[in-house]
Amino acid sequence: MTDLYLQDWRAWTPHRETAGECRLDTREKPAGAAVPSMLRRRLNLLGRAVCDMLATLDSGADSIVLHASRHGDGERTLEMLYGLNDGEPLSPARFGLSVHNATVGVYSIASGNRRSQQAVAASGGEWAALMAEARGYLADGQPSVIIVFSDQPVPRRFAAYAPESSSAAVVLRLGRDPNPGARRLSETSVELELETATLQPLDIIDWLMDRRRVVACPLSRRSWQFPAVRP
Amino acid sequence: MTTTALEHELKEMIIETLELEDVTPDDIDRDEPLFVEGLGLDSIDALELGLALQKRYGITLESEAESSRQHFANLKSLAALVESRRQK
């Protein structure tokens, strides 16, 4: 299996303390400064955070970007559906930004990055899907890819049907080679009860900050960790 | 309602409807283009603005018509459209 290295990362969530970690942004309102104001106005807070972090890790605007979110902008989508049901006309701007690839699309326009992008939803298996996609691109010869994992709370009307989730986003640059400061990532098979909680962006943030040793996906029965001793 | 008052109302509608965060009514010049140049609105804004005119003033525009382009040229022409075609 292709060796996988975490070359750099950034994360955003107001639900954790930075504890001196400068790669974690905990501001309630991320600036969205990487996107011109005429584009930024249509992004929600999560989208602004993601675009800022992408601009940092994709400074050459030439990386392949893979984005996963279990629910996407559920609030916006659901409100539109209720509006349609009430016979109200659909807002073109809201519709445009409700699609699953909206945030990375805006990033592409703002940065001029015209490489491949993917937007994934995987019923709780988002992290495993991202890793599989990333491995594919790396095995195919890409030196590095950028993955984005973001989610926000499920709309209140549907909260009873899905695990609780918090606003959080994490952006990682994964590569085949260990650049200075990179950490090798090992992936292994693992037996897990299917009822095990699915991975959310906050879990990945805790893992990146060494607050947990392993992250595991019950759907794919895979787990990931940073081996203590580098080869 | 004087034209100036209507123009001000339209400026506020544009800012609110199109979520123009950093724009105040004073920033919108009545003679400057609204789209691409000037204020810098895009094609999605045009659709959004058409919807707002329909909701607030009962005006339905033909999307393909060249006249729509003229109505949306600047704030002055937009105010003239609302004045002549408003249903409410």
Automatic annotation (TrEMBL), chain A:
Designated name of the protein: Beta-ketoacyl synthase-like N-terminal domain-containing protein
Pfam family, one: Ketoacyl-synt_2
InterPro entries hit by this protein: Ketoacyl_synth_N (IPR014030)
Protein species of origin: Salinicola socius
Beta-ketoacyl synthase-like N-terminal domain sequence ranges: 9-225
UniProtKB/TrEMBL annotation, chain B:
UniProt superkingdom: Bacteria
Domain Carrier: 1-86
Pfam families xref list: PP-binding
Protein's name in the database: Acyl carrier protein
Naturally occurring in which organism (per UniProt): Salinicola socius
InterPro entries referenced in this protein's UniProt entry, alphabetically: ACP-like_sf, PP-bd_ACP
